What does this fold into?
Amino acid sequence: MPAPYPVKKNWAFRITAVLLAILLTLALLEFIAWLLLHKKWPRTASIPTNEWVSLTGHGRRLKPNLDFEQMFEVSNRMVHFRTNSLGFRGKEVSLEKKPGSTRILVLGDSITLSPFLPEEEVYPALLEKILSEAHPVEVINAGVSDVGLEEELWIFKETAYQLKPDIVLLGFYLNDSRPPWGFENEYYRLPPWLIEKSKTVEQYSYLYKWLWKRFLVKHFMGRTAAARWDWRNEYVKENWITDKAAYQNVIKEASMDFGAAWQEDSWKKIYAGLDQMQALAQKHDFKLSIIIFPVGLQVRSEVYDTYPQQKMLAYCQEHSIPCLDLLPILREHKDQDIYFDHCHLNTLGHQVIAPGIASFLNGIKP
It folds into this structure.
């Protein structure tokens, strides 16, 4: 009768076999994940959308050839909204410029797009009207709601070389460091060290990346997605108009929105994006220029805080980029009704800034 197989060796063999089977299964799943996902990343599933916005691998875009009317709650107005074949708001644009004319491509977010106002009341259209008094000027509104610098850079890459603008005007807002899928802690609040470790693993594993984004983030998102708007509870109190501590608290609460402009890490991302934009402008012989939209908090408060503006102006001065800070212009009208909310200008607000931007652009030689 043969001697029985040692119990320890038997268990060791079984454990080894199970571990090996798990590793082989994970390897197979990783290969399948890579095969299915490596050409489809970055993730776009969490980006909110509507019937006139499409999602791409590089963020949100307006759908081309739209033509409809819609009641917008922000303005309480029925607005005719149209896009051209390039997916930009307004009339059709020829790829070839008219001889002797100046073409300006305006990049920006919902402040620039302003879908809740008729297109002729928004500052790009007002600029075209003002500037065309001296010589033919075409201003193209390439704004898209809820985008940041990363998406604006991709819009620039995708279309600027076709349109060959003389000037690219970036309508910069204070939350433009926000990625297409939102800040990491916008969807889940986990220890920073765990988030950083996750990022490291994601670089090497498509399977882990998919599991993390689709299951773990989804689990936390329901509890924390609304955190991006927590600051509104403090904003509506309006004690920040005279109280510096209340002002600073709103900025802190808005860290996943305009408050990001008071964080040094955000400026590293912004500067990196602007470096790419400036390099492309120089390569294609466009003149990059920037206008800085403040948050209404800065406009109306007695606390005169220009930290984000100074960060942008310093960069532009160092890189010889024409830049206009709109805060002084808007503060001159702070007692007037120029905003729909904390950042979106109403018709009067657009009328207030348009002449100043036009004068700024007249000083730029393409």
About this structure: The CA atoms of residues 175 and 260 lie 6 Å apart.
